[in-house]
Amino acid sequence: MKKIKINSFAVLAFVVTFIFTTFNANANQTRENVIKRGSLNCGVSQGVPGFSNADASGKWAGIDVDLCRAVAAAVLGDANKVKYSPLSAKDRFEVLKAGDIDVLARNTTWTLSRDGGLAVDFVGTNFYDGQGFMIRKAANINSAKKLNNVKVCVETGTTTELNLRDYFKQQKLKYEPVAFTKADEAVAAYDAGRCDVYTTDKSGLAANRTKLKNPADHLILPETISKEPLGPVVRGNDENWANIVRWSLNVMIEAEEYGITQANIDSLKSTEDPAIKRLLGLEGETGKNLSLANTWSYNIIKQVGNYAESYNANVGPKTPVGLARGQNASWRNGGLLYSPPVR
Amino acid sequence: MFLTSQFKTSLRKNLQLSKLLPQLLLIILFCYIVYFFTKNTQINLAARNLNFGFDFLNTNSGFDVQFSLIQYDGSSSYFRSYLVGLLNTLLVSFFGIIFATILGFIVGISRLSPNWIVNKLSLIYVELFRNLPLLLQIFFWYFVVIRSLPSTEKSMVILDFLIINLQGFYIPKFIFSNFIYIFYGLFLALLATFAVKYYATKVFYESGKIIPVFKIFLLLIIIFPIIFSLIGDVSLLIEYPKLVKNFGIFNYVGGVKLVPEFLALLFSLSLYTSAFIAENVRAGILAISKGQKEASKSLGFNNPQTLKLIVIPQALRVIIPPTTNQYLNLTKNSSLAAAIGYPDLAGVFAGTALSQTGKAIEIIFMVMMTYLTISLIISGILNWYNKKIAIVER
To answer: Most-buried pick from A245, A275, B53, B207 (CB within 10 A)?
Structure first.
């Protein structure tokens, strides 16, 4: 009898524990969680050179990676305290929503249906892109308007896939999509000859061309068929965290505007310019509004650099990706990059 | 030991209670777990400003799919993309099951062959295909075999009938006019066969004569459609795939196209599953005692009759239950299609549609229910067949 009583008691205890388990709503705590954990979990691509790509030693680099580093510098004071999760286009939003990553910096296009319908927030644009086509030079085609009856390799679960259909529909041309879950698979299939054309954002075309067997045999067609503002994404239920990521990016953009670089930042400490002083954390209370230390913006510029430095090191004309600044120049130089004032 | 009657009664009551209490607690626990997960999902959905619902199924999908059995493009609804995926899953599973069964029976019987070479070759076949991971085999067929085929402009052309290249396999398309007459012919042939069978049974019981029903059936099924197509003026148009050049891009237009992703998946699923079926077949045949065959011989049955009337009916009883499992495995394994971009249910609906809508819970639920339904239907059919051929206890 005794034995049975104990068993029933154990079952009861189990049930009671279940009843008092709190429901997990998990809102508004990202900053606290990151600080408690001591590292930032950042979702990146599975390898797009110049944006987020790991080298042979496993070290990540790219402009998306720099954004992760900037957020880590702002929140934790150390740009290296980032854990990278390579994600496929298909999985990225679900992983973010589940809370496995804190920021998604994975050349993700900002659209209305994603911003409004997926319970995530897009907090800015760190690269203005547009979709294009890559084709073999042997195909003798120099314009996207001449593409007809072609097989197009594309990554599934992307806006690329949707724009592709829109474009061929508008042009009344025929095509056949061959969709893969990973960008790498789509590129490899194109390289092997499974498709005649490969499509993605133009930056991605330039980056992926470097991976082909003979990059010189391939041509990027001049047409840009869509607007692709790429930027970081956070969960939609944490305003403080959205602000931290948004303004981490803005600090990098504004630092370029005021000519503050990784190299000269310490020499600027004696400056009289109030805007620069604010960016260095010497004046105003920018950190307080984000619940961060006032050195947050200084840490970003000192450890990661301004936007121009990040751009030139990763995707600029002197890198293998080789993209001119174009519309990604500061608004002062005729580009689209414009940060609201950091004050 | 001395027990009072009062003590006995209380013991009995306690025993009843002790049997009942855990059951009761288990039910409560079960209800609570269901409640917990439902509630938890609701709270988390609300916290993320997500709403649960299937309205999205009616909206435009906006993406195209490379290979579809029904009319579909980006202006079709998400529900239609679900159907596209479902049909593609059923297509590859259907042909996979047929090929796996045929191959499995051939290899399984060869495993018992007295011929040393046939025997050992089928042994190698079985051990090779059932012991390598399926995903690896899919990759092998897709990335190694198909990727090494020639490009479109240098296609292999076999007897003007089959064109093989990296972008797919092409065969001519047969277009019949007045096809319905052939159908009438087939239908009538079936009716006639039933009549013959009825007559043959009657003759057999009356006089013991055997009328070869199957041969008559073969004859009818050929002759009737031919006669009918002559009556109905049926004509056949063969559309051959044509090589078209657009600037420097070559393309086959027309005919029937089999995409490489489908072929790679079909090959690997069929070969992998056939190895298991072969072992089931071998087990089934070995399970019949030698005495059965000897008894059949001594009753005067010849070899084909022994096989048809004594061995196979009994072997099937052993073969079918484990083969049902293999059919279910094949169907579920077809979801590995996503790895090579074949647009099946898991790829199109649980993949592309999910990431375009973000309706993870609804879509995964639908896909799970769909696979469950397909599996239950397959096992239902085979259970029915198994019951039909089971020993009737008298």
So the answer is: A245
